[in-house]
Each structure stands twice: as C-alpha cells, then as structure tokens.
Amino acid sequence: MKSFKKTIYVALFIFSVFAFFAEQAAAIVPTERIRETTDIIRDIVTDSKLKSGAKTTERRQKIRDALDKRFDFAEMAKRSLGHHWRRYPDRQKEFTKLFVELLERTYIAEIESFEDEIIDYKKEVVEQEFAEVATSVTLPKTGRDFSVVYKLHLKDGDWKVYDVVFEGISAVNNYRSQFNRVITQKGGFEELMKRLREKGEMK
Question: Which of 190, 136, 130, 140 is nearest to 168 (CA)?
Fold first, then answer.
C-alpha cells in the first residue's frame, strides 16, 4: 500500500510540475516577444556609438545575438529544404549553418537601415503550440506601409519564429521553391551546397 501511495504522490508531483511550466509558457505573449526583439534591434541600429564603420562587426554581432534568441533558424532551415531534409541527415548541420549565413547576408544590411519605422502590432492568433503575430510597418519618409506576419512555435518554453511572411510572401516557402529548383533541375543537392558556400544565386 505504501508503495502504491508513493507512486501516486510522484505522479501528482510530476503532473503539477508539468502544469506549472505549461501555464508559464502559456502566459508568455507572442506579440510581446516580437516587440521585445524589435525594440532591442532598434536600440542597436540607432545607437550612435555603434554607427561608425569601425563598429560594423560589433553592431552586426549584436543584431545576430538578438535574432538568435528569437528565431529558430534550425526549424527554418528544415522547412526551407522541405522533403529533401530527410534525405540528407548527415548534411543537416552543415546546411543549417550555410542557410543562416545566407539569411544574414540577405537581411542584416536591411535591418541596419531600420530607424524610424512605425510598427503597428495588429493581431495575434494562438493555437496550442503555434502562433501568428500580424504587424504593419509604416515608413514615415514615404508613407508607404507593408505587412509582416511572424509565425512562431513554442520551443523550450518560449516563442520562436520559424517563418516570416512579407506582403503575403513566405520566406520559408520562397527559399523552399528556390532550393528545390536547384536540387531537381540544376545539379542536385551538392550543387545547392556549392552555391550556398560560394554565396551564389539560387536562380
């Protein structure tokens, strides 16, 4: 009987711990995570002490650190490679590294130009372990605005971005289409890896 009671107590303890962490994760608001990261990056790129060319390496490293905390780049790499991901288990780590370098080359220069944009956090949708945060970005100098939707999932108790949709175009889907075309029509997986290493075009 004592053994049975002990088992029950252990089970209840495990359940209570799980419930606590599940509640803590649920309390984290995806929109606030996106806002937090955006504010950090804004502070970095508007910091006068980091503006000079001599500070480029330091400035970009700070941006990378902020993005690494909020983005699940491994998941983005996996989704961008699509069904090919499972075919090359021994190359996944290398591909992810090259994919992250591609993202950095493509977007960090644009991020560095971010200063006085107005961001409106319009809508948040949460479905269990997945969420979408819809925003509108307005450029004060031109009055132009565009939509950016962040897709997130819960990982290790926090919300991580696994895709970004610009004006209805998914970054992950766009890369998946490019990568698949290279693999199936332009020389295979090795050709894709070669182009990524050489920082070449996917087209």
Answer: 136
Ordered domains of the chain (ranges, CATH): 2-197 (3.10.450.710)
**For residue range 118-150, what is the model confidence (pLDDT) as tens digits?**
999 999 999 999 999 999 999 888 889 999 999
Q: What are the C-alpha distances in Å from 147 to residues 18, 119, 198?
A: 37, 10, 32
In the sheet with 169-170, reading across from the earlier edge strand, the strands are 118-127, 130-138, 145-155, 158-166, 169-170
Q: Enter the tokens of residue 13.
A: 């303890």
pLDDT exceeds 80 at position 83? yes
Q: What are 108's two structure tokens?
A: 């960090």
Q: What's the pTM?
A: 0.82
